[in-house]
Amino acid sequence: MEPRLTVPLRRIAPCSTVQAAWCADSHPPPRNPQRPEVLRRGVRLCCWCAAQAASVLGGAAAAPASESHSMVKLVSFDVDGTLIHSVGDSANKVHRQAFKGAFKQVFDVDTDIDVINHHGCTDPLILLKILEHHGVAKEESMPRLGEMQTSMLQYFETHKDEVADGVAVLPGVKNVLQELKTRSDVATCLVTGNLEPIGWGKMEAVGLLDFFSPSPFGGFGSDFCSGNTEESWRDRAELIRIAATRASHLLPNPVSERFHIGDTPMDLLAAKEAGAVAIGVTTGTYSRRDLETCGAETVVLDDLADVSQVLKAMGLE
Ligand SMILES: [Mg+2]
């Protein structure tokens, strides 16, 4: 017999809002209505509706709610200041030079990313913000974002053997990723403002690439740019949503809960906006106080050095 939803499919969408009262009428309340647990085909579902939707949507079906062990927690990591940091005189050299070359090649502007506070911004928004700083209006810079990103990627590709210069893996990162890789109830990915080839290129250069869940996947600066340089965290939130959508297509098991780990207030605000649990680390340029003011529920760690503490923050201990 054809599997059927007891809740009509068209009514699944309200699950993606906080107002889950309608679905609570037909089953027990979601374990946490504030945090929809599964992303399927672009809509977030509570755990119960996800279980019902699975048989109708097919593919990588959600498990019945009673078999929560087959669901996975999705952990997304920011890159700069979270997994790796800049060190020495050649700090983050190749990425910085890629930006510098793009400004010169496309707009004939001699500049450097340090003319603004770029921490927590996506690469496309950094390009726009710096050009604004030099008097180039967004109407002029936005249409040429593609050219600038292509320029950056060309530079990065031709200097790949230097990517590890000026970057280092932060304490505990390898141990945390290694531990998460061994767990069948966890999937890991990147959510970073880096253009995708640059993000993965850095991971490969420092020996972290193989720790992430296959394909590998994530959300990257190259995936989306609204042009909103005033609230850069909003673009990052979109990247977290994109990673969740990709997870729903790529992972064999449904996602029960999402976590995003980052070093800037923008990471934490974005996580909350996109329905993920925000975990801050003070290994970047922001203090514990800076990160804690992003919300009462925000978990802030000094770093990722204590594996058990990191696991505990995600309910994985
Ligand atoms: Mg960062």
Fold blueprint:
Blueprint: H1 21-24, E1 38-40, E2 43-45, H2 47-57, E3 72-77, E4 84-86, H3 93-107, H4 123-133, H5 138-141, H6 145-158, E5 167-169, H7 173-181, E6 186-192, H8 196-205, E7 218-220, H9 232-250, E8 255-262, H10 265-273, E9 277-281, H11 288-292, E10 299-301, H12 307-313
Parallel strand pairs: 3-6, 3-8, 6-7, 8-9, 9-10
Antiparallel strand pairs: 1-2, 4-5
The structure holds magnesium ion.
Please tell me how large the radius of gyration is. Answer: 20 Å
Spell out the helices and strands N to C: HEEHEEHHHHEHEHEHEHEHEH
- What characterizes the major β-sheet? 6 strands, parallel
What would you give as the CATH superfamily of the largest domain?
HAD superfamily/HAD-like
- Give the strand order of the largest sheet, numbering strands 1, 2, ... along the chain: 7-6-3-8-9-10
> CATH class of the largest domain, anyone?
Alpha Beta
Count structural domains: 3
Look at the helices and sheets and give the structural class: alpha/beta
